[in-house]
Specification:
heterodimer; A: alpha/beta; D-Maltodextrin-Binding Protein, domain 2; 5-stranded mixed beta sheet; 19 helices; 12 strands; 48% helix; B: mainly alpha; MetI-like fold; flat
């Protein structure tokens, strides 16, 4: 009886404590990259402010500095962010270094089920170790690398005839990587309406992650694998397989023969600029930008269409997107968890998609009208069905920078062969995993 | 009361403090004044240096607080000194250092020589010439990036105008052969005025009577230049070389904005590489060893150079 009384009293005081915490209005800071979906999230979050009484502040960092700035913040135990929408590759470090709050107990207590979210996004954005039911984030923003093109140019009879004459094939949305290169080469240097245009804008940026995200968009459809056996760190023969070599050579040929002059250090912004200025027929970029591109008054609407990263030996798209985590150093974790609870609701997720965010909630993705809700919605679903992500290890930054160097050296700076670049990459990665004690 | 420094200070201080100071020796007072500086020097320079040396023998990673820190002996140093990629970074740095200094000294001296002549609008031209060095390196890097743009960049059009080449047929920032020169050009554009100002100070410090005496001895202008102007400006020039050398050895912002170290690693100077190792890869122990190697290199070279500079001054 005494124990029961004690338990009741404890439960009451816990409840009172939790009530007093949740009743207290907090000013929460959410950190993310500065891009179109972030603006949509600001709009969406107004509803949370009304419902909860908490106020929201936002810290949006431009993409080129996002990883640097946020990882420094986490590593120094900074309290700037209460909530962080961090890149998928950070999950390993976030979990192992104690930067992110583990959310399993919270999910259980609040009845939030990971089964309600797309499997690929839960695997990529939430779990560490990979695929285990240990959750450090809620899938917030599904994303993948996709393509868009000048539908109006593709539809022109003179251009179609010229393409047919040049290649013997019909001009259409590319069905394979090689067909995409052929189309890009066709447009390269072509005069359209008195202006010289080019094939495609692809990622070649050296400093952060750009060229790796671009190159992997070729590697994955060729069947690239990081390891022979998942979890073994056995990379020889996988990373430098003949398919990987062929894909890397393909990307270099794409860069050399089908991109505008001066595209030696280009990423998202440059790709958008090239397309919006009418310089290129096609461009790669993250699906997150597609709503904005479609709405563009000059090159959007009827002039644009979208396609998923074309297959070659198999389907494959480079994963983007992020999960939302509660920062372990925050003093406002309860309010931050309230935000996650609110964000996980199906109606909020539906509104998130409406505003331009990419929900990963099954109720949104599996809705009968989802595919027709936007011109890129179907492609997004296709892409998310075949996404692959980069290493998500705690040492991901070292792994990423090694790949940035090796592929940029080969693709842009013409140093060595594709085989040599991938062999050197294995050496770099082996060294990293040895330092980590995993090899 | 004797007129010692202690007494003078005591007289100028409130009585309570004065009573305490009056009993102190000159040496003690000197220490009181120097102590804060020494403390700051120890805290800001010496302690981090010693700590960096200590870290350089470990596998420490600043982003992995809970990870066991192991002593790895000289392994970090061995890895750095045997890494061919790092030697390529060193070569890129040496190329950048050598050519920026050569060009800035030659052009800076020539400009100073011209500006030193009295002509109408002299002050206006001096102001115009020194403008680039007043800009932020990040801004300079950004706008030169546009100037070098193959399709719209003014630089390519100017070169095309003189050579008849197609402007978009060459990429200053994208070509492995041109990119190292592109950063040399920008740094020279920005910092030649600095060298010019130092040379100008040197030229204006030469008394006129020396040239007058040379005129009396019927020395030619050419001879005056080599036997009076150059030797007397040389210490100033050497000082300018020292400043530019140290600055350019740690060059970071301008090059990051211009090329990001690319294409590939062609313009990845040691400072850029070091920043990547320390604050992007977070290999703190390794980066500490790298920093120590660079420190010893700069310190060694600067010491030799300062000795040479002193010898020139003594002449």
């Amino acid at each position: 009886m005494k124990t029961l009384k004690l338990a009741s009293a404890s439960a009451l005081s816990l409840a009172a404590a939790s009530f007093s915490t949740s009743a207290q209005a907090e000013d929460l800071t959410l950190c993310w990259a500065a891009w179109d979906p972030a603006n949509a999230l600001v709009e969406l979050s107004k509803e949370f402010e009304e419902q909860s009484g908490h106020s929201m502040s936002f810290e949006f960092i431009p993409w080129p500095n996002f990883a640097d700035r946020m990882l420094n913040e986490l590593n120094s135990g900074g309290k700037l962010c209460d909530l962080l929408i961090g890149d998928s590759q950070w999950i390993g470090g976030g979990a192992e270094n104690g930067h992110y709050v583990k959310l399993n107990d919270f999910f259980d207590a609040e009845g939030i089920s990971m089964d309600d979210f797309a499997d690929a996004t839960v695997y990529a954005y939430s779990t560490w170790p990979k695929g285990t039911p240990n959750y450090y984030a809620l899938p917030a923003m599904g994303d993948a690398n996709g393509w868009f093109y000048r539908k109006d140019w593709f539809a022109r009879e003179d251009i179609q005839a010229a393409y047919k004459e040049a290649t013997g094939e019909d001009l259409r949305e590319p069905q394979s990587q090689k067909e995409m290169l052929q189309i890009a080469q066709f447009f390269q240097g072509r005069e359209i309406d008195g202006k010289t245009v080019y094939g495609a804008a692809i990622f070649t940026e050296r400093g952060s992650e750009g060229i790796t995200m671009g190159v992997t968009s070729a590697l994955y459809p060729w069947g690239f694998k990081y390891e022979n056996t998942p979890g073994s760190y056995d990379m020889e023969g996988a990373v430098n397989s003949p398919e990987a070599v062929e894909a890397l050579e393909f990307y270099k040929e794409f860069y050399k023969t089908a991109t505008p002059p001066g595209y030696t250090n280009s990423y998202m912004g440059e790709s958008l600029d090239a397309f919006k200025s009418g310089q290129v027929a096609m461009a790669m970029n993250w699906f997150a930008f597609f709503p904005g591109l479609y709405a563009d008054p000059n090159t959007g609407g009827d002039k644009i269409d979208f396609f998923v990263n074309p297959p070659q030996n198999q389907d494959g798209s480079t994963l983007g997107g992020q999960g939302i985590s509660v920062v372990a150093y925050s003093d406002k974790q309860d309010a931050a968890l309230e935000y996650i609870k609110w964000f996980a609701q199906p109606d909020v997720q539906a509104k998130w998609w409406e505003l331009g965010g990419y929900s990963a909630h099954n109720s949104v993705l599996n809705a009968p009208d989802f595919k027709d809700s936007a011109p890129f919605a179907g492609d997004f679903l296709d892409a998310m069905g075949a996404v692959q992500d980069f290493w998500q290890e705690p040492a991901y930054a070292e792994l990423l920078l090694a790949m940035q160097k090796r592929v940029h050296d080969y693709v842009v700076a013409d140093q060595g062969t594709a085989q040599e670049a991938l062999n050197l990459l294995i050496e770099d990665w082996t060294e990293v995993f040895e330092d980590e004690g995993k090899l | 009361m004797s007129d010692t420094p202690a007494n003078r200070i005591a007289a100028a201080t409130p009585p309570r403090v004065a009573r305490k100071i009056r009993g102190l020796s000159d040496r003690a007072i000197a220490w009181i004044f120097v102590a804060p500086t020494i403390f700051l020097l120890l805290a800001i320079n010496i302690f981090p240096l010693i700590w960096t040396i200590q870290l350089s023998f470990t596998n420490y990673k600043a982003n992995r607080i809970g990870r066991e820190v192991k002593n790895v002996g000289l392994r970090n140093y061995e890895r750095i000194l045997t890494d061919s990629d790092i030697w390529l970074n060193m070569q890129a740095t040496a190329h950048f250092l050598f050519w920026t200094i050569v060009l800035q000294v030659l052009i800076g001296f020539a400009l100073a020589y011209l500006i030193n002549k009295k002509f109408k609008g002299n002050d206006l031209w001096t102001t115009i010439i020194v403008l680039p060095m007043m800009l932020s390196p990040a801004v300079v890097g950004n706008f030169w990036k546009f100037l070098y743009q193959p399709q719209i960049g003014l630089f390519n059009y100017v070169v095309a105008f003189f050579t008849g080449k197609d402007p978009s047929s060459f990429e200053m920032l994208g070509s492995v052969t041109l990119a190292p020169w592109s950063i040399v050009i920008v740094d020279t554009w920005m910092w030649t005025p600095f060298v010019m100002l130092i040379c100008l100070a040197g030229l204006r410090s030469i008394p006129d009577y020396i040239y007058e005496a040379a005129e009396v001895d019927r020395a030619s202008k050419w001879r005056q230049f080599w036997t009076i102007t150059v030797p007397m400006v040389l210490p100033f020039l050497m000082l300018a070389v020292l400043f530019r050398g140290i600055e350019n050895f740690k060059m970071f912002d301008l090059v990051v904005q211009l090329t990001g170290g690319g294409p590939g690693s062609t313009t990845e100077l040691t400072s850029i590489n070091l920043k990547r190792e320390a604050f992007e890869k977070w290999r703190t122990g390794y980066a500490s060893a790298y920093a120590i190697i660079l420190f010893v290199t700069v310190f060694g070279l600067a010491s030799i150079y300062v000795k040479a500079l002193n010898k020139v001054k003594e002449r």
